[in-house]
precorrin-2 dehydrogenase (Pelotomaculum schinkii), 213 residues
Amino acid sequence: MSRRYFISLNLTGKTCLVVGGGQVAERKVHSLLECGAHVVVVSPSITPGLAKLAEEDKLVYRQGYYRVSDLAGVFLVIGAANREEVNRQVADDCAVRNLIVNIVDDQAKGNFFVPAVVRRGDLSIAVSTDGKSPMLARKIREDLEKTYGAPFGEFLELLGDLRQEVIRNVADRDLKRAILENMVDSEVLSLLKEGCIERVKERLRSAYRSGRS
């Protein structure tokens, strides 16, 4: 199998279809909603959690069996039905229409995998095994969660602001590069892993001030 091409999709306002109403489907729905997607669920029955989301108008639920017309206007599809033949039909219909589709019980039938992801603010770290071992991906993600804690999200927010200031205010290309490299050197990363966010903030500001002076 050829290597996968990793991308980061912007799902804000995009219609995403989830076929299935069980626990796996519910987890997929939550992930899509976190990314700002407009989620449609099709299934004869759904979990209480999905029912609550539907009651709160956080998703659209069509009670019934999947049909090809459900794909109209859809950007991304997840096949999470508890019947293999339904997921296979979803995969086949999406392939004909060149739609992005993930089949949870048989990754090879879809055209993308969902990696295990660590999120710290705008920092996202994805782990994928190309569907060969989701359990291994989860274990590695759990290790990464311990290494890259909440301070990394706060650090990235400040770093993003200072980076824009450097780009606007520092004309010399070599100096600009040196300042940006000093902001993310190995000592800064070590301090972040230790949770010393205030010391990191001061180092960032110091790197910026010394570079400008």
User: Anything to note?
Assistant: The first strand starts at residue 15 and ends at 19. The beta strands are 15-19, 38-43, 60-63, 76-79, 100-103, 116-120, 123-127. The domain at 15-114 is CATH 3.40.50.720 (Rossmann fold).
